[in-house]
Q: What sequence folds into this?
């Protein structure tokens, strides 16, 4: 099962443009949170193959400002799986578009619940996949 959970890791890459900047010439925190939630959602959905809903965001740490002409990479990893909830850790790395090197800029935890069409909790049953 560990191999299956590892295969659910999700990565997204984005370029930072002027329209995403605030008055300080750095990316809006809300924009980054949106991208992190999307990455976490995709990771949780890949894991469960069910309807997942964000329940809680925790331990978000802004470590480095992200400026224009940056490339960011968001990585979502499954941290734990409970009866109804899943914890996804998202890390955001930044690099200069025309430079070298990469630094961690953000990290946070996203808790998702598996809900049915009536928005009631349903148990998580991980899909059965053959080993590849």
A:
């Amino acid at each position: 099962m560990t191999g299956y959970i590892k295969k659910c890791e999700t990565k997204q890459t984005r370029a930072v443009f002027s329209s995403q900047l605030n008055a300080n010439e750095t990316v809006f925190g809300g924009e980054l949170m949106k991208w992190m939630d999307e990455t976490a959602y995709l990771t949780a959905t890949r894991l469960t193959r069910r309807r997942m809903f964000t329940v809680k965001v925790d331990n978000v740490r802004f470590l480095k400002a992200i400026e224009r002409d940056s490339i960011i990479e968001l990585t979502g990893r499954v941290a734990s799986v409970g009866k109804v909830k899943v914890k996804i850790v998202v890390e955001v790395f930044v690099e200069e578009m025309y430079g070298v090197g990469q630094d961690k800029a953000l990290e946070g935890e996203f808790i998702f619940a598996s809900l049915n069409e009536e928005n009631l909790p349903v148990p998580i049953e991980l899909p059965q996949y053959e080993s590849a």
The two ends are 12 Å apart (CA to CA). The mean pLDDT is 93. The beta strands are 10-15, 52-62, 70-81, 85-96, 103-114.
